[in-house]
Design a protein that fits this description.
Layout lengths: L2 E5 L10 H7 L5 H16 L5 H13 L4 H12 L8 H12 L3 E9 H11 L2 E9 L3 E4 L6 H10 L7 E5 L6 H4 L5
């Protein structure tokens, strides 16, 4: 019997917003950056600016001037710190499912730049927001949140081949994914 469990990352397996913590790793002054980006942050919360565009603004502000190699090295180093902020109760649930032969897939709006090395180290599959390089990192495709999570899952998996499907998330951005559950 094939079984799979989909886990959101931020707020479900990780305490906080990993993207913001990643931006703190940049050479730029973090709080000054938040101040400079505040008009865009406000526009996002008012519904005037899509999440993808806000992420691109953050990526440009915090990582413009990095070489692609330096950016990826920073992301790889950051990935090694992610376990320190994991939510233990959810991690234990994930480990129980893995012992019960569930495939584990992380589905996140966070960036592939730092989640891929982390998922590889833990032997998890990953569906997330992709990044391309264009003199600085940019979101490639759509931000993997809300209905985009389901689209990514359905593109990567033929769910009809699974007898058990579980999903775990903590926010309204995970609601569509949670509806995929089949026990």
């Amino acid at each position: 019997m094939r079984k799979i469990a989909f886990f959101d990352f931020d707020g479900t397996l990780y305490k906080g917003d990993s993207f913001l913590y990643f931006c703190k790793q940049s050479k730029r002054y973090y709080y000054w950056g938040l101040f400079m980006l505040s008009p865009f942050i406000l526009s996002f919360y008012l519904g005037w600016l899509p999440a993808k565009e806000l992420k691109n603004r953050f990526l440009k502000y915090f990582f413009k001037g990095y070489s692609e190699e330096d950016y990826l090295q920073l992301a790889n180093n950051f990935s090694k710190s992610l376990d320190a902020k994991r939510i233990e109760v959810m991690w234990e649930k994930l480990e129980v499912l893995r012992r019960n032969e569930f495939e584990i897939c992380i589905v996140s709006a966070s960036l592939q730049s730092y989640l891929q090395p982390w998922c590889t180290a833990h032997n998890f599959k990953l569906l997330c927001t992709q990044v391309k390089w264009d003199s600085y990192p940019k979101v490639a495709g759509e931000n993997c949140n809300y209905d985009e999570k389901v689209k990514a899952i359905e593109k990567a998996y033929d769910l009809s081949g699974y007898q058990k499907i579980l999903a775990f998330g903590d926010s309204k951005g995970d609601a569509a994914m949670l509806k995929l559950q089949r026990v």
